[in-house]
Amino acid sequence: MAINYPNPKKTTTKLINRANLGMTLEGDIEATNQFYLDKQRAVIYKKPTPVQVVTVSYPARNKAKITEAYYKTPSTTDFNGVYKGYYIDFDAKETSSKTSIPLKNIPEHQIIHLKRIVDAGGIGFMIVYFSVYNEYYYLPFDVLYEHYLSSINGGRKSITYETFKTLAYPIKFGFNPRIDYLKIIDDIIIPSLS
Amino acid sequence: MAINYPNPKKTTTKLINRANLGMTLEGDIEATNQFYLDKQRAVIYKKPTPVQVVTVSYPARNKAKITEAYYKTPSTTDFNGVYKGYYIDFDAKETSSKTSIPLKNIPEHQIIHLKRIVDAGGIGFMIVYFSVYNEYYYLPFDVLYEHYLSSINGGRKSITYETFKTLAYPIKFGFNPRIDYLKIIDDIIIPSLS
Fold first, then answer.
1. What are the structural domain ranges in chain A?
2. pLDDT(B59) > 90
């Protein structure tokens, strides 16, 4: 007799609803950070996207209008801030793959940046969203770094979903906060530091 | 008999030299942070200036050209990062006054931001440059905040140079690093935390 597995279409429906609400991974994290800020739990911001300004005109007094500019590649990660005195630094990535996240999705300069952060005593990590499963993971930097080092030495160029199941920490999606990554920091990361 | 005070013009000459070299307070701090980064002492960056992008054109594939944008007021301070596991957050201000720095030079949103930082366990401060004296000071957030609270309750709207002499910490200008504010954090701030 066949086991009645939950219909995977349910997950898909959820995703469509989420998309219909105009939510994005970045938007969900920004809403989470705003929640933390409002509750006075943490002060964590998204850094502005760096822009190389080429031409500025002044159509009115004290009103600078940028008329030519280009996006620059950020040299760091998108998010940083402070929680319980700890320096927090991370970026967020989404993958539509069922089996892994390709390491090419994570720019090398972000890995170098996070390595410096961890070496300076900060907490560095990635939030990875597997869209097909609608699952969020807290990927500690050391796990990311091992896979990165392995990849540049000829190893596989991705981190498998199975690795997330064993070495990363699931973050439950909620109403408010939406992506409660501080819970992982409270429950798992801070206790491991002391 | 008149006391032969050092000629104040000497300070002016120094300033002109500094200006001739194209240095700015912000540039000096960025050079300092780069020195700390290169020496693996700390990871502290200036946040990009936020820009509100209105129109983007695509003159070539994968090449986004911003054709209309405006500078936005940052909601935080300019600099943040991590040192010895401590979260560091500050801004830098310059005054040409001989007697004080006006509090209107420090936007209220920066004071609110730094208050949140300190409440969350971070190290918050201002670097203040008195250009007439060519002197740099580390102004701890608590001193700034007392003066801010006093000013909104009818007190004076500036922090006097005398206050800097007694409650702030001088930072020596050097060749490399130029503005060694981590020395103040090492010698005075970290010992006061434990």
1. 9-193
2. no
